């Protein structure tokens, strides 16, 4: 993987902040490949892998799956794809995820998009999403918010101290959020 030297942007933000929605827009306009760590883990459950039950239980509790599992899935997805530009959505979620990914892959992100959104807006979005996600119930949503504040915000702080965070007001309508995102991508892609 170190040989491939892919360009990686981490896309972070609380549950329901709009990471997946905005990644789809970025893919269309800027030619990145979107890798959602959560989607890869949910696909792993569906595939009936030996880790499936463990992953399912962690997601139901809003807990963070052991980093070796998630990192293996991300590495495989990067290697299987010919593209050299990736959006990694929803990972790293804690300091251990972050340190392990850097140590295992040697990849340091170009920058970090941080979708900043108030909890009440995120809660409203998740409760009305209706895509059958097992973690979109109020009990699990509250657990996800707690884990985000306690474990994931410190990762964003880490990258902020390195000047790598591009913070976006994600409470606005989808189109307005994307206008801000577009402006952040355009200069680095030229
Ligand atoms: N929506 C989006 N943008 C909107 C806007 N601007 N205005 C109004 N509505 C907007 O959006 C959520 C909903 O809001 C959608 O209905 C959308 O139309 C609407 P979405 O783009 O899906 O938001 P996103 O931030 O992607 O929300 P998601 O629920 O996917 O975030 P999570 O971070 O909670 O979920 P993820 O899939 O990343 O992780 C799920 C679980 O997997 C974790 O809790 C954890 O248990 C596990 N996990 C790990 O253990 N390790 C990992 O590395 C990753 C995940
Ligand atoms: Mg998502």
UniProtKB/TrEMBL annotation:
Taxonomic path: Eukaryota, Viridiplantae, Streptophyta, Embryophyta, Tracheophyta
Family listed: Belongs to the adenylate kinase family. UMP-CMP kinase subfamily.
Function: Catalyzes the phosphorylation of pyrimidine nucleoside monophosphates at the expense of ATP. Plays an important role in de novo pyrimidine nucleotide biosynthesis. Has preference for UMP and CMP as phosphate acceptors.
Protein name: UMP-CMP kinase
EC number(s) from the headed UniProt entry: 2.7.4.14
Reactions catalysed according to its record: dCMP + ATP = dCDP + ADP; UMP + ATP = UDP + ADP; CMP + ATP = CDP + ADP
GO CC term, one of those recorded: cytoplasm
Domain of life, per lineage: Eukaryota
Cross-referenced SUPFAM superfamilies: P-loop containing nucleoside triphosphate hydrolases
Cofactor: binding comment: Binds 1 Mg(2+) ion per monomer.
Amino acids binding CMP: 97
Entry keyword set: ATP-binding, Cytoplasm, Kinase, Nucleotide-binding, Nucleus, Pyrimidine biosynthesis, Transferase
Main location: cytoplasm
